[in-house]
Specification:
hydrolase activity; Glyoxylase-like metal-dependent hydrolase (Beta-lactamase superfamily II); globular; hydrolase; alpha+beta; about 170 residues; 4 helices; 9 strands
Amino acid sequence: MTLVESGAPSVREYFGFTDWPNGTATIDLGGRKLTVLPIPGHKEDSIAVYDPHTRWLLSGDTFYPGRLYIWEWDSYRASIARLVDFSKTHRISALMGTHIEMSRTQGQDYPMGSSYQPDEAGLALLPEDLLLLDATLSEIGKEPEKRVRDKFIVRPVSKIERILTWVAKRLGL
């Protein structure tokens, strides 16, 4: 088992990406190959993993039923566009993120830090939801802004949040 260090340089090196964030890499599980796609924007080293056997596109914290925290707006928009392009040439049955923050009530999220979510939405999103995210980002344009949809919330990280996060990290908080 190999643990890949965080950070885009480590991820690039491990998977052998030569043109980050473009291109793909392959993980061979021995008779089953997964495709890895760079998708920076939520974090600089974000990746998606596609399994042609299940037709699942694992999208991590980049796309899931919840608040989509976007740290780098232009990179995120480009990454979602690349996922849409990928979906045009690969059959996708579900997009699977890492967690759920939305309820089944359309457009309603749970408060940050909730541990009890009795009416939470399902984890799986559909290719149509990815198309809606891409259309939403295009509609918003160059200037980041929050946008609520039934199954997700586009949530750009503000400059003050970036500064506070940087300070908190430096202080070890």
